[in-house]
Amino acid sequence: MLEIYHRSLPTQDIYQKLDIMARKNNLGANCIFIGIVRDENSISGLSFDIYEPILKTWFQTWEIQIENQGGILYMAHSLGDVPCGESSFACAILSSQRKVALSFFDKFIEDFKHNAPIWKYDIKDGKRIYAKDRSNPLPHSGLLG
Question: Cα dihedral sign for 141, 144, 53, 15?
């Protein structure tokens, strides 16, 4: 399940949704990662652009891998501005036992950081500034790479 929010993520709602999903599917492992925008480099927040068609294809590849091992993958991301202290990224892997969830967790997040078509901008003095030093070029991205 992939969700895009046009604001900060409603983390409490996401926690509740994942808890219900785990109980409904009789899954004992519910591994959740929540990314929170930090106040660093004098920013007031981050802003994100997303290219949804490629994101959906990238996500489905992971979703199938995890489903083939009996797990469920969930991811949410913000589109637009997210102030410091709020969440912009959440992912979870649910499975019957922790082994499946934990075996995919770090790999999924690292691949997300390097291959998901999401561009990050610092918000400083009300301006969006591309965070080039903390970004990775997408493979085969032509001019964007």
Answer: positive
Q: Which residue has the tokens 């009789």?
A: 26
Pairing of strands 72-78, 2-5: parallel
Q: What is the DSSP string of the chain?
A: -EEEESSS--HHHHHHHHHHHHHHTT-SEEEEEEEE----TT-SEEEEEE-HHHHHHHHHHHHHHHHTTT-EEEEEEE-EEEETTSEEEEEEEEESSHHHHHHHHHHHHHHHHHHS-EEEEEEETTEEEE-GGG--PPTT-GGG-
**Residue 111: CA count within 13 A, CB half-sphere:** 12
> What would the two tokens of residue 100 be?
């499946």
Q: Alpha-carbon distance 105 to 101, whole Å?
A: 6
pTM, to two decimals: 0.87
Q: Which CATH superfamily is domain 2-124 in?
A: Molybdopterin biosynthesis MoaE subunit (3.90.1170.40)
What confidence tens digit (pLDDT) does each residue in 82-140 have? 999 999 999 999 999 889 888 898 999 999 988 999 999 999 998 998 876 666 565 65
